[in-house]
Structures are given as C-alpha cells and as structure tokens.
Amino acid sequence: MYLSTFLPLIGAFSLSFALNFPPVSGNKKPGVTPLELKLSYPDPITPSAGNRDLMISVYYPSQPSRISTLAPAYDSAYAKYLTASLGIPPGLIETVISNAYGGAKISDQVGERGEKVKEVLLFSGGYGQSREDYGATIARLVSRGYIIVSVDHPFDSNFVAYPDGHNATLVPSQPVDPIAAANSAIDIRVKDLQAVTAALREKSFVKQIPGANNKLDKPSGIFGHSFGGAAAASLMSQNKELKCGINLDGTFWGNVPVISASLSPRPFLTLASDGHNAVTDPSWALFRASGGRKARQGFFGITGSSHPAYTDFAYLYGILKKSGIPGVPDLGNTFGTIDGARMLEVEGTLLERFFERCFEGEDDPFKGLGKGLAEVVAQ
C-alpha cells in the first residue's frame, strides 16, 4: 500500500493517542527545568562551534501549582529528529508525556545541607543518546526525594536542542586509534560534569530553577549508561565527594586499574545486559581485579535485557507495537526479550535500593539487592 493510504489513520491516532510512562514509585512530585550552561573554552569535539555549550535538565522534588502540567518527554525539535531517525509515524513522539512537571517550583525542603532532602546525583547518558532518553528512570528516583542533574554532551549526544533554536548533532568518527579516541571522549565528558558540578554552587545559575534562591548541595552520587557509566567511574575516582556510583552496562575506559583502586572503599554498582560480563568484557575483569581488598563493587545482570533497554525506548517501543498503530517499524530484539515496563521496574528498583543503602552507610549495599526480582543475577 502507499503511504498516503495510512496518513489519515496515523493522524487520527496521533490526535487521540497519548503515551504515558508508568507512575513513579515515591511520594514526591518530580519537577524539571532545562538549563543552558555556556563554558569559557572552545568545544573540543567541534571547535568551529565556538565555546563548549551544555544543556542539562535539573530534576527535583517539586510543588506544582494548580496550573502546572506534566512536561512533554521530548523537546519538540528532538521529537522531530526521533521521528525521522527511528522511522516512527509522524506525531507520535510528540504525544509522549513525562512524569515531571515542567518548570514547577522546587520543594521548600530542597536546599543546602541540614534540610530534609536526599542527595544530589549526576547523570550521563550513552554515546549517541540524549539526556531526554532516560526521563522515566530519572523521574522515578526523583520521586524518592533525590535531585538529579542530567547532562547532554554536545556532538557526542545524538541531538542537543538549545533555547535559541539551534541544535548540535552527533559527530561520528572513524579514528585510527579507537581506544585513544574513547579515552579522549571520556575525558571530555568528565570535564563537562566537573563544569556542571561547579555551576551548581553558583547562586546566579541555580536561581534559574523556579523557587531555588540558593546554591544546591554538591553532588554526592553519580550514575550513567554506557559511555556515561565509564564517565561516572572516572569522575568518581577523581572526586572524593562522590560517595556512590553506578555504571549501567558500560565498558570501562581510561586507566582502569587506577580508576578502580581510587574508588575504594566507596561502593560502585555495575548493571549488565544479558551476556555482558567479565568474560565478554575484559575491562570489567580488569576493574574487578584492581579494586584492592577494600573494594566494594557489585556486578548484577538483568536477564533478557539488551544494551539499549536501559533507555526509555524499550518501554515506548513495546507500547507502540501493542497499539496496532500502522507504520511502527519491527526492531526485533533490539531491546532484548524483557518487557519494557518490566525493565523500567527492575532497573528502577535496583537504583533505588542501591542509592538508599549506600547513602545510609550500609556495610554491604549489594547484599540481597536483587531480592524479589527474578531477572536479576549476581555476577
């Protein structure tokens, strides 16, 4: 059939169809505010773009007003990019609603230490991914009381949209030395995260968040997916104020023995897709062997998951395929065999348990971490 046959039907679906994520698990109402952070040095990936220019999303427990609404999951420009790149019928991505209130006032309990607020966490996504690809998992953690700062890395992320309407897209490379290129990319991410950490201590920057008139606490935890997981380990090895870290299925890069040893005795969790382990990934074996006798490391696999399943797309794709909407491409087992909603639940539960135990100072935050989750296997 011709595409014109489907267009009226697709239009009818997009007008009446809205995609929502599963409800958050905590009793806090997440809010989100996107912020631009212009840095003072040239962009190391694309110098012709001028100075490095980051986009971040700050998620926080909020006090939504009667007119507050849940924000779209994706910036409108990014939604159009996803529609074209994924081959999704037009208009569908724009209907996806997040679990965070856009621009809502930050909770009165959020401020510097001494107030009733949990920790500030940093998040870095995978290579070729957007910070917006992880909103459901982040909002779930925020509903438990955390503040999370999610960072895009321009020209490393697939698409970064800016307030003035311009965007930065992924700059693919075919390096002569892939290992050196990966190490360099991680260093760039670490520098980005350091800049964000510094900005969170600047009143002039933080006051852009509605209701936030003071500096935020320094980040005390970090997590990331894929390249972001490697960046999390690397930054944590340099920043002793980061108490807890998580790598979501990423290969470790850089001086792995030094990174691993520098983390001890701070707890560091690694979650793995099905088939990813210390046998298939030598960097994991090296990381485990280098922590020293005081190392507190945990490795857990999620049966049936794949590397991309750590994004929100595993859930969204499953919903779209079940909806019967014409034109949704068949991606096979791109997201593994685990149901997308179940993946969000398993991943979210593991993150909640680990951070809660780690920040409470439990001696072994990994003991029984996967209790009640049949898909979780200790490695």
Automatic annotation (TrEMBL):
Its EC number is 3.1.1.47. GO terms for biological process: lipid catabolic process. Gene3D superfamilies: alpha/beta hydrolase. It comes from the Eukaryota. Residues 1-26 form the signal peptide. One of its GO terms (molecular function) is 1-alkyl-2-acetylglycerophosphocholine esterase activity. This is 1-alkyl-2-acetylglycerophosphocholine esterase. It comes from Hymenoscyphus fraxineus. The lineage of its organism: Eukaryota, Fungi, Dikarya, Ascomycota, Pezizomycotina.
